[in-house]
Predict the 3D structure of the following.
Amino acid sequence: MSNFIAQSELYLPILLQGVYLTILVTAGAFVLSTILGLVLAFMRVSGIRSLSAISRVFIIVVRGIPGLVTLFYIYFVFPDLGLSLTAVQAAIIGLGIAYSPYQAEVFRSGMEAIDQGQTEAALSIGMGWGLVMRRVILPQAIKVALPPYGSTMVMLLKDSSLASTITVAELSLQGKLLASSTFENTTVFTLVALIYLAMSLPLTAFNGWLEKRLRQPR
Amino acid sequence: MTIISLSNVRKFYGTHEVIRNVTTSVAKGEVLCLIGPSGSGKSTLLRCINGLEDYQGGDIVVQGARVDRTNRNGIRTIRTRVSMVFQRFNLFPHRTALENVAEGPIYVKGEPRAQALERARDLLARVGLADKANSYPTQLSGGQQQRVAIARALGMQPEAILFDEPTSALDPELVGEVLGVMRSLADEGMTMVVVTHEMGFARDVADRVIFLDGGILLEDGPPEDVLVRPQNPRTQDFLRRILPT
């Protein structure tokens, strides 16, 4: 145990260098997947058949391809098409796209959970589609969507380790490099696991706090 | 002066015809009650008037404008002139009673916030809920919620209000307070179209009663004729079943 602590003091700074990239990739992909997910969900519930169909096909296709393959595709295939990205850019865009179907389904199920009578009441006072969404559906849907949205955030944090496969030196890749150069597999990978856990806990706590806040009287 | 007119209105669900050539009209200040067995098409007909449902034949005209769901701006304008009160209230649960009433005036009609809130307060007082302005719908009884919904409909300063079975979801002891508010609206000259099973209300308050069965308009006349001396055997049969003798 004392050995573990001594080694930890040595290895932690190196691993923490990877944490920065893990957070960057996670945050970037989360923002991108949220935006894409919202657009896909709006297209799906828009009532316009062509938009809904495009959204549905996109979701089926992207969800059916492993995130790892999406990353490879963007990092290795796009340059052949004349679009070169840095490894970090490719990781953010790839994970953002790979996660957008899950986000879209979270948002859609939130919106569809709201009683049809709410839409009718909003329409009956003359609201158009935009107002119905903004003033009536979304404020209620967000409460329904928040718990699965929070889980998605934690899943994405963990899956940011996929970026290691396209040379992004984030936490798991740093760990792998460190372990293969020191042969201290136990110490290094225990530390890596603990750091991931330490990052996911605040996310979970924040999500719980937000849920509670939104559930208050209103 | 006619506010709402329906001529030869037909509606289909697939090949099933649920409204069959209904023609009638509602004059300014008139209270029209729609009665009939469940599944007769009376709620559907009501929902066609403000375009919550579409119809396939004939015309519905509100103050000179044809109700046409494909005309987005047109239908929104019609809905600001003809409000609706629903069976299940459909208040916005994330907003207070006051905000529910002020929502349409502020966000749809662009009324200044302070003015809209003050008017909303007056309207809540008018339905007897001045002290509930800051309550959320879940904190109110069914009867109170429905009165807030009536205030919300009034907030749009409509030419007419459509009531879709406004007391059917209420506990029996709460029906009276809602009917009381509707009665006073009628006394003040509000144009109202009411789908109801409350025969007492129809008899006392309605200027005209329509009896629908199977999507067909079978009777249209003053309540003393339709409810007391119905011509059609199906109306007679319906009233025999619904009215305690």
